[in-house]
Automatic annotation (TrEMBL), chains A, B:
One of its GO terms (biological process) is lipid homeostasis. The lineage of its organism: Eukaryota, Metazoa, Ecdysozoa, Nematoda, Chromadorea. This is Acyl-coenzyme A oxidase. The active site is at E432. Residues 25-144 form the Acyl-coenzyme A oxidase N-terminal domain.
Amino acid sequence: MRHNLIEPGDNEDITNERRGSSFSVGKLATFIHGGEEKFRRRQEILKFVEAQEDFQDPIPPEFMSRKERVENNARKIIAMTNKIAFIDQSDIFEEGLLFQSLIMGRDFHAMSLHYGMFIPTIQGQTDDDQLDYWLPLAVSRAIIGTYAQTELGHGTNISKLETTATYDAKTDEFVLHTPTVSATKWWSGGLGKSSNHAIIPAQLIINGSNKGLHMFIVQIRDLKTHMPLPGITVGDIGPKMGIPGIDNGFLIFNNYRIPRKNMFMRYSQVLSNGEYIAPKHSKLRYGTMVFVRSLMVRDQAMQLAAAVTIAIRYSAVRRQGEWKPGLKEVQILDYRTQQYRIFPYLAQSFVFLFAATEVKNLYMRVNEQLSDGITELVQELHILSAGFKAVVTWEVAKGIEQCRLACGGHGYSHASGLPEIYSFAVAGCTYEGENIVMLLQVARFLMKTVKEIRSSSAHLAAIAKYLLDDWKHKSSFREWQAAKYEDLVEDFEQAARNQIYFAYDYMQQLQKDNHSPEEAWNCASVELCQASRLHILCFMAKSYFSRIVQCTEPEIARILDLIGKLYLLYEISTHCYSFRKADYMSDEQIKNVKCGIYEILGNLRPEAVAIVDSFDFSDRELHSVLGRRDGNVYAAMLEWAKYSELNKTEVLSTFKQYFGPMMESARSKI
Amino acid sequence: MRHNLIEPGDNEDITNERRGSSFSVGKLATFIHGGEEKFRRRQEILKFVEAQEDFQDPIPPEFMSRKERVENNARKIIAMTNKIAFIDQSDIFEEGLLFQSLIMGRDFHAMSLHYGMFIPTIQGQTDDDQLDYWLPLAVSRAIIGTYAQTELGHGTNISKLETTATYDAKTDEFVLHTPTVSATKWWSGGLGKSSNHAIIPAQLIINGSNKGLHMFIVQIRDLKTHMPLPGITVGDIGPKMGIPGIDNGFLIFNNYRIPRKNMFMRYSQVLSNGEYIAPKHSKLRYGTMVFVRSLMVRDQAMQLAAAVTIAIRYSAVRRQGEWKPGLKEVQILDYRTQQYRIFPYLAQSFVFLFAATEVKNLYMRVNEQLSDGITELVQELHILSAGFKAVVTWEVAKGIEQCRLACGGHGYSHASGLPEIYSFAVAGCTYEGENIVMLLQVARFLMKTVKEIRSSSAHLAAIAKYLLDDWKHKSSFREWQAAKYEDLVEDFEQAARNQIYFAYDYMQQLQKDNHSPEEAWNCASVELCQASRLHILCFMAKSYFSRIVQCTEPEIARILDLIGKLYLLYEISTHCYSFRKADYMSDEQIKNVKCGIYEILGNLRPEAVAIVDSFDFSDRELHSVLGRRDGNVYAAMLEWAKYSELNKTEVLSTFKQYFGPMMESARSKI
């Protein structure tokens, strides 16, 4: 399995790269994907997907119009769910994500929210009768549902959603209504044209009194004709930066009536006489969200890995510039600036992938504990997943775009796949909790912790224990080869601790200077975000370290060590002022960090193609002309371009209609 | 003119913002746009454009397919050039860019290269007979031409282009040929479907000897039928990340013959007997490129200004979150984190706009000097324009994307205009000289300068004079209000000087450690790029300062001062390690820089809407539902969505074909 990606007819440069690497791609791939059985399953799933006729695209999706893409996705999502039994459905994290990505590509589809939100919300929010009624309908695909929470004017602060559900005791019904334009439901996936049902969070009004947000299940289109029901206005919200294959929708209610039993009543109830029964206690219901975020982060890490794979493979076959006259042009992968643009994101892909697994495992542990009534880790996990999501999605977006730019002009073409990867991944900075809001949630937790520490009442979550440790006043870092992970992690902890206490003290000072607590929080919020980022970095560093110590193969351990060191030094360099502060590191040490990065880049250079081969992307999954396994990029680009909409006719209508007459008239005058 | 943007029916929040600002929008707009006459012309041009029926789009372009967009642009570019006499054609920098942007939007078109490259190359490279023949044809629009330099496998290093032009003395012709797939001409705008002529740089071969790259003008399509001529294969290269309205093309020659006189012969000639006459001296021909870059940077700065305008206006009308229960939700512009995301880019827009003008003026001065035979400033200008382009395009791309993310979910919709602004502007990081290559060109100049200084032979260009100054060992910065521009500029110079000499010494060290000069350059290249960036920052800082001292209105001067300070402190904070290094600034000073930023953000907050109003974007030019002057965003989004391709029918075909049968079959089984 050592050089298993080499085949006859491959581009010579990429073959030489594969021959020149020092380790077994199969072994690293097995380590990345969590063991031989999992690695084997990846091949099986790929083979299965490639064999199904109804999983195939008639033309590459990037050449489809939005409508064609929506139609193609509709066809494929039915085919996919028809054959879902092929994969282990208890393993959404790995098998599920891979299966979906191989079939649906980098896009959502009409039923993304049916599976991601509609069914889970039914499972979590209904009473027993409701569950018995709705769940079979949803699971059997007898109805298509979505979850319509956000409104045109309302996102994160859901308590201010404007849609109302007013109880009418006379008819035993709720009247759903959209009182203003800004109350229009907006963005929900599959809402525009595909769903005939939606779960609607709305303000519950009984006898003029607002009982707060509750959830209602609503039929919005006729089951037979699929026409919107009277009182419903619904449609697509129009083109977006990416993710064209899903009909994100809007929805307006005009005094639309639904039966009382369509309010989900697991926690609160409305009786037929209008009596309101409040929930017994406000439940901690972080579970689904945390799981979705760990799924999301795994997918994001894979998107970054894909971008890095494309950029590195292309940089191996692209030659440009000369070092010595008369020699062949240089492979652009040889340029330190090119390595510096790409390899740190290669390192991040590993760190994020491993950390996503750790968060998922933590989620599993918490779920087990919860069934025993132990809630100790719930808040920690919630905070961790929020901060983790914010840091990862932003780094991934930056990294993909750097990879794209590193491919020069061709990176701008959809042939590279990179514009689509970027527009797909960057949406993650906004959905499932806007990143800045997430960072401030983490900061809220950190400030509470510092306050408790200062008042000696702290009961610290494991992830925050380092805040209690003694301050280290001087980094022991000398040079990268000799640096120990434990010491580097301590450096990260010190930088984080320093920033976290700084932010706390800064807020205290602002309050002494007559700012209200809210103002002080706001004025310090940029520093608070930085505290959260450094806090999350500590988690990443520790998490990577705890994973790679499990590696028993020296040839692989060497690669993982280079990658880990690059990650750590690059992050120190990125935040180097935080490490330089209070003379924790000297100028000399910072210089050694930077020079260490350049040396590691040089060490990774001959391994780079083999490392990205180890992510085990098939050409199908990668979907990139620039990133093809065989490296035969240019001929493939020419082939690809033939699909262009403009190439369907040799002469465009613009000639007859516009340019032909213009030129002829000018020629007649010369 | 104080509050001239307020109209009845406007969103209340945005009106309050305009009422609450401290200065006259008209006065700031006049200052930005270079005087009352220029400001007046902007209004005239807008009015003219709005009155021309043939300049209008039938539907917003973001709802068009690529083909529709290409057709619409073809129609409009003819209409635009028909009426070009309305503007002052000697003022491309301001009137030309505005006119084009109002009519063509953020897109290129079939004749972008005809005007941008084809005509200028004819002007620069032909002998007199050739000029007399080709220029009237091009200018009168009797032919459409493009410039086809890059090939599939070759970009920046043009000496390695593969296309050949072999002289055949028997027929007095050149034979153009594409010897390999990687020699396929690729990317040229308008080449795919629109142009019938192209200028082709190719290797000139005479009697088996390669004379290097020369330019040839080639007819590629029949004038009457527009069919590709025999021996020519040509087409569109397929969809890209953005800029859909232009047919970037590919071109393959199969031993295609052209007359000898189609080689441009201003500098070298080929006689009919095959004799080659080499150019007398290799000319400095930076002129066009420098001018194109200063145009480009002005346009980039305006794109950033547009993004900032959208983000700030939307942040004024978007309310989310509560500081005190019971009060209205907070305008998101009140969040310091939101200000921190957007306002530094507001400041950059000003700095870049003013610097673009300075580069343009320098270009004019150099051109005057050149006609007197003075070449002193040519290299300086060339280097400056390269570095300036690299720094500006990257900051602009980052800034636009931050503005987009700051608009939350709606920023992801094409309704915001931001995805299009981003994909249009970010291409600038790659074309007209890839950014990293540009930074390394600047570094080459800086290292040569240091070497000359060290060997006491330096004849320094004005822009590099500070490299000779005495080193300053301690910044005098205390707090932002009291800080003087001169001192801050010195801080920048010291940081740049420090980094430039550091990079030089690092290279020396590497050479002592047995690296070849090429290896040493490569190993140090990341530090070299950083040296170039800091060098360019010094120019920006000085250039802004020299512009705003011309402001005579105190109310405007105050705003320009806040903007300038924000720019400078933000850049210090971004590169804060470079300022902390060698204890040039202390931790306390860095803290004051950061706290200074937060305070300036607070000071700019009430002025922000009025400041962006001063950019004087019409709704037509801004083309953003989120950035509308009137702030009535939500109703307009709903209107906008009605154009969606998916909303043309109430029920999509996916229901009848896929989802209907799926659901019906499931229901029949329940």
